[in-house]
Design a protein that fits this description.
Blueprint (H helix, E strand, L loop, with lengths): L1 H17 L11 H4 L8 H6 L6 H16 L15 E4 L1 H7 L4 H5 L5 E3 L11 E3 L11 E4 L2 E2 L19 E7 L15 E6 L7 E9 L3 E12 L2 E12 L4 E2 L7 E13 L7 E15 L8 H6 L3 E2 L7 E18 L2 E22 L2 E2 H6 L5 H8 L4 E27 L6 E27 L2 E7 L6 E20 L2 E18 L13 E19 L4 E12 L12 E14 L2 E14 L1 E3 L12 E3 L3 E12 L1 H4 L8 E12 L3 E2 L8 E2 L11 E10 L3 E10 L20 E13 L2 E8 L7 E3 L6 E2 L4 E9 L1
Parallel strand pairs: 4-7, 11-14
Antiparallel strand pairs: 1-6, 2-3, 4-5, 6-7, 8-9, 8-39, 9-10, 10-12, 12-13, 13-15, 15-16, 16-17, 16-18, 18-19, 19-20, 19-21, 21-22, 22-23, 23-24, 24-25, 25-26, 26-29, 27-28, 29-30, 30-33, 31-32, 33-34, 34-35, 35-36, 36-39, 37-38
């Protein structure tokens, strides 16, 4: 934490030096007033005078600040985006009250998710065929800041923002996503955290349910004069829905705390400034494993866990700080600068092999590895320590400073909104891993011995990056053209200390270094056919960098991405249909234990791949159309995706191995998926139904009919909820997830078959003032 306070003191010192006017003043953020960036046009900013109301001025500054931490800008701003965009509002999040991000994102077209442990704690998310393993092919943000543990050097998201404390969720795809980075192929997922309220307020959400599931979410905050603050806490726990042979928990416990402080200049100041500090800490302990089941065992007992996963446990600790400074230089120019730091530690103590055979191989071919399977089940005793449990101990940090300047630059009837941004970033992954050796007797594990510290992996990978982007939205009449250009310069370095140098004295040190630079152009076009109907199209370059330790033969992932579509907005009805085509010059795959591989982190070139698809979404509310007291919101989303290799090669990458032939389809990408939700909302009560469907997917690349032993199962999952307002500030609710108790194979990785979560009942209450 000492680094956090050092960064804070530096930021305050710098800000004090440049602004003697900076004192505490109320400036509510977007969540407290509902003001969105798109609701206050540029001319309203220019029209303000010192005599106008302070509240109006605060709203304008608030909207501008909100726009700098978002990637979409609000529900109404979606139609201004020169590409596909989705915005999930606080109201929508509260309606369904999910703690599992997978259940939320399944309702967004173009987004693909894959369950792993059934709670969405370590999500697997992809967009437009990028691949989904550990969400490492999309750009993850919280409040507009990179949030993956090490976004450049180790992007696999073993830490993920707690969705239950978020105020909104944004998804941006297409050419406009080059504003973010470094990953630009699929898109951007941004989580907007709870805002400081505009007046004294508090809220409490409590829930409990099956498997000793319990949830508590509380927040309190206030704004006075020129000072605002927020304290928020979130706790989630469960004993788990799986049954461990011999007994024991298979669940988790999560704590998440966030604090915010904001000060800003007086509303009468000619130059508006604001400084906001955000500090967060998240810890998680989970009795989770990579060990799944054989097909036969899944058929008979899908929620079983083998005895040899008894000691599997993950511990994580995440700390974050963001210091954001907003400066309105003039009504047409503003600058937002953010200093950030994330520290993340995790140790996943989990079974890796039995008798020298990787657990994935045992479960793929139980006939050949019958002895090893008996040990996994606890049906056979061993005193030699044949069960190897790995301490996957890793520490990460990411830090940097980014600045975005926004300028409104009219030229006659041409309106220009220019954004220029720069980011200096550094991140690191430190692996220091070894194995423990366990025996098993009467179905219970016991420690036989431990290997030398660092004897499995002992290396540090780091990345230093400078990123610059410029984007100009030019509006002339009914046309809007948005060209953009992003430049990334990245320096990778890996220090491998070898497996016999735990003190890192350098005797066996091997250093690998390589640099790369890339220009990423993009162009988006909007045309307003009518005030309700708009057409859009875009083209941009997709890019994903290789990581530290990759050799000269490993090329970065690059693609040409095209999209075209239309939006029809006749409130309360909205329709959007988008077609997309991604032409990969070189697809990258990364070896990891979570994909069933060895966990080396090595990169593999996948050659040319073509991904094409269709995204459609529709929403309406017949109650609003007829001006009824009750509302009846309906939402439907559909995605079609085809992802096909265009080259042939042999590989040891687990998802593609052992060989790929031109025409093979990529694994873990459902061809079709859809969701539908319907609700009845009365001033005193409401009821919601959400249904999601996903095709069966390949778990290995291939063509022709999908082999049963290399496939997940199609799933149709329905969730229902009901809430009633007892008094003005009190509400009670119930939820049933997976109403039909559908049992299906959600994945065949990391090792063996894994189920989706079963039917689960929760009940709780909300209170706020």
């Amino acid at each position: 934490m000492h680094r956090l306070f050092l960064l804070l003191s530096l930021a305050i010192t710098a800000l004090t030096a440049i602004s003697p006017h900076l004192v505490a003043e109320e400036m509510p953020l977007h969540g407290s007033t509902g003001v969105e960036a798109a609701s206050l046009p540029a001319e309203s900013v220019e029209a303000l005078t010192p005599e106008e109301s302070a509240e109006k001025k605060r709203q304008v500054v608030e909207a501008m600040l909100f726009g700098r931490l978002t990637v979409v800008g609000g529900e109404e701003a979606v139609r201004e985006v020169p590409g596909s965009a989705e915005y999930i509002s606080l109201k929508q999040l509260q309606e369904q009250d999910y703690a599992d991000v997978h259940r939320i994102l399944r309702q967004i077209p173009g987004v693909t998710v894959q369950d792993e442990e059934g709670y969405g704690l370590r999500p697997n998310i992809g967009m437009r065929g990028t691949g989904i393993e550990r969400s490492q092919k999309i750009t993850l943000l919280e409040d507009g800041i990179l949030i993956a543990p090490a976004p450049y050097s180790a992007p696999a998201a073993y830490y993920f923002p707690t969705v239950g404390r978020m105020e909104s969720i944004e998804v941006r795809k297409g050419s406009s996503s080059i504003r973010q980075g470094p990953l630009t192929t699929g898109g951007v997922l941004n989580f907007v955290s709870t805002s400081i309220p505009s007046q004294l307020g508090a809220s409490l959400n409590l829930a409990a349910g099956e498997d000793s599931t319990a949830r508590a979410h509380a927040s309190v905050g206030d704004s006075r004069e020129r000072f605002g603050w927020l304290l928020e806490g979130y706790h989630l726990q469960s004993d788990g829905f799986k049954q461990l042979d011999g007994g024991g928990d298979t669940g988790f416990e999560l704590f998440d705390f966030v604090g915010k402080i904001r000060i800003h200049s007086a509303s009468t100041s000619s130059i508006q400034q604001a400084l906001e500090l955000k500090i967060g800490k998240t810890t998680q302990q989970g009795d989770e494993t990579y060990l799944g089941l054989t097909a036969d065992d899944f058929s008979s007992t899908p929620f079983r866990r083998y005895a040899a996963s008894e000691t599997d446990k993950i511990d994580t600790d995440h700390e974050q700080i963001q210091v954001r400074h907003f400066l309105q230089i003039s009504p047409a120019i503003d600058l937002t600068t953010t200093v950030y730091r994330n520290d993340f530690f995790r140790n996943w103590h989990k079974l890796d092999s039995v008798g020298g055979v990787a657990i994935a191989r045992v479960l793929e071919d139980p006939m050949i590895f019958g002895t090893e399977l008996a040990l996994l089940r606890g049906e056979r005793d061993d005193v030699t320590g044949t069960l190897r449990v790995r301490n996957n101990r890793r520490e990460y940090y990411s830090q940097g400073v980014q600045a975005v300047a926004a300028m409104q630059w009219p030229l006659g009837s041409l309106r220009q909104n220019v954004e220029l941004g720069v980011r200096f970033h550094q991140d690191e992954e430190d692996r220091f891993q070894e194995d423990d050796r366990f025996g098993i007797q009467s179905g219970r594990m016991y420690l036989v011995g431990s290997d030398a510290p660092g004897s499995n992996a002992n290396r540090i990978g780091e990345a230093k990056a400078v990123a610059v982007f410029v984007q100009n939205q030019m509006v002339l009449g009914r046309w809007s053209v948005t060209p953009g250009l992003r430049f990334e310069s990245i320096a990778f370095r890996q220090q491998d200390f070898g497996r016999s140098d735990p003190t890192r004295g350098g005797a066996t040190l091997i250093v690998r270094e390589h640099d790369l630079s890339v220009l990423i152009p993009g162009l988006g076009v909007n045309f307003e056919v009518t005030p309700r109907l708009g057409l859009f199209a875009g083209a941009h370059k997709g890019f994903a960098p290789p990581g530290p330790g990759s050799d000269e033969r490993t090329k970065p992932e690059q693609s040409v991405n095209l999209e075209a579509g239309f939006r029809y907005d006749a409130s309360p009805s909205r329709l959007q249909i988008v077609g997309f085509f991604n032409d990969y010059d070189n697809l990258l795959g990364r070896d990891s234990a979570s994909s069933g591989g060895a966990g080396s982190g090595d990169l593999f070139n996948g050659g040319r791949v073509e991904v094409k698809g269709l995204e459609a979404s529709f929403e309406t509310d017949p109650g609003r159309l007829r001006s009824m007291t009750r509302s009846y919101p309906l939402r439907v989303a559909y995605t079609y995706t085809s992802a096909v290799f265009q080259s042939s090669f042999d590989t040891s990458f687990e998802d593609w191995a052992p060989r790929v032939r031109s025409g093979d389809r990529l694994p873990y990408l459902p061809e079709q998926q859809w969701s539908a939700s319907a609700a009845i909302s009365d001033p005193r009560w409401s009821s919601h139904l959400t249904v999601t469907y996903s095709d069966a997917t390949r778990t290995k690349s291939g063509s022709g009919p999908i082999l049963h032993e290399q496939s997940t199962e199609a799933s149709l999952v329905a969730d229902v909820s009901f809430d009633i307002l007892l008094r003005e500030r009190w509400k009670i609710f119930t939820q049933i997830r997976n109403l039909t108790d559908d049992v299906y194979v959600a994945a065949r990785r990391p090792a063996g078959l894994r189920p989706g979560s079963p039917r689960t009942l929760l009940a709780g209450m909300n209170w706020s003032f």
